[in-house]
Amino acid sequence: MNKYPVWLDCDVGVDDAIAIMALHALEETDLLAISTVSGNVPLSSTFSNAHRMNGLMKTNYPVYKGADRPLIVQPQYAYTFHGKNGLGDVELPLPEDAKMLDTPAWDALYDCAKQHPGELRLIAIGPLTNVAIALTKYPELKTLLHTILIMGGAAVGGNVTPAAEFNIYADPDAAQIVFKSGVPIVMCGLDVTMQAMFRPEDWDELAQTGTEAGKFTKACVQKAWAFCKSIGLPGVAMHDACPVMYLAHPELFRAEEAGVYVETRGSITRGKTVTDLYSDKQFETKNAMVVLGVDRDKFIGVLKDCIRKI
Ligand code: BDR
Ligand code: CA
């Protein structure tokens, strides 16, 4: 089977950690490297958490360090959801053989894209700072990438503010560069990711398998679950697993082509992904596939199969 070569840019992160496990276990994807960015927690933690995931999975994916702050706005973290350490305050050991590579994320990404011209799928599940820096520093990169699959934004509503989703709000200037880059974009925003609910019976089932990955999965979502339960949600949304699963199993999703641009300032709308899906006025260019729906039970079924394999 031909596998999709994938670069993952992330801000590990509870749901980033689960997305990493999915990407590792899926037969359709070939994870080449991981880059980390400031987002849910500071860069030092997102970087070490990616190494900790290598330890948990007994893998050796190269991990690169990217931006330690957004392009222009101040950093904003999401400790309430992800815990102080980003992994729901579950302590995973840092592997002794962790390779502390010092090539910056954007340089390593460009080198990798040159080795896979027209083939590399870039999955970005944190603020888009690293991706924007790479596209700006290397104008050729946009012709080398096959697609950028993003967890971010929403056609309707927001989570961190009424208008904006966290990853886009955290670095709207970077997001605008990415959406305007000309690279084909798949946007998995809150419209779809809030349907991708992981429920208590799902993580209980995984923990009962007794594997380290199963037990970690249940433990790391507990802090997020306490928050989600308090606002009346039935589970924890697997935001970051959505673009991963969309790449491997697009048949589980419903998507529509649209024009999408980012409100970079605005007094109450900073970070809003403005789409023309529902408006009479249409943007000149349809620059994204906006993913709007998912078969939740099949999605969670595949996700659980992935974690069971680790
Ligand atoms: C996104 O923000 C982060 O908290 C999650 O990891 C996900 O990437 C959801 O809005
Ligand atoms: Ca994330």
Structure description:
The chain is of the alpha/beta class and 310 residues long. It has one domain (4-308): Inosine-uridine Nucleoside N-ribohydrolase, Chain A (Alpha-Beta Complex), CATH 3.90.245. Helices cover 39% and strands 18% of the residues. It has helices spanning 14-25, 43-57, 79-82, 105-115, 129-137, 141-144, 166-170, 172-179, 190-193, 200-208, 212-220, 222-230, 241-248, 296-309; strands at residues 4-10, 29-36, 63-65, 120-124, 145-151, 185-188, 197-198, 236-237, 253-258, 260-262, 273-275, 288-294. The strands form three sheets. It has an eight-stranded mixed β-sheet with strand order 3-2-1-4-5-6-12-9, sandwiched between helices. Strands 7-8 form a two-stranded antiparallel ribbon. Strand 2, helix 2 (43-57) and strand 3 form a beta-alpha-beta unit. Helix 1 packs parallel to helix 13, helix 4 (105-115) crosses helix 5 (129-137) and helix 5 (129-137) crosses helix 8. The chain is globular and about 55 Å long. The chain binds beta-D-ribofuranose and calcium ion (CA).
Bound molecules: beta-D-ribofuranose, calcium ion
Which strand-content bin applies to the residues? 15-25%
Report the CATH superfamily. Ribonucleoside hydrolase-like
- For the largest sheet, list the strands in their spatial order: 3-2-1-4-5-6-12-9
Task: Describe the largest sheet.
Answer: 8 strands, mixed
CATH class: Alpha Beta
Number of domains: 1
CATH topology: Inosine-uridine Nucleoside N-ribohydrolase, Chain A
Number of helices: 14
Mean pLDDT comes to: 97
Distance between the termini: 20 Å
- Strand element count: 12
The residue ranges in which pLDDT falls below 50 over 5 or more consecutive positions are none
Proportion of helical residues: 25-40%
H-E order: EHEHEHHEHHEHHEHEHHHEHEEEEH
Structural class: alpha/beta
Rg, please? 18 Å
CATH architecture descriptor text:
Alpha-Beta Complex
Rough shape?
globular
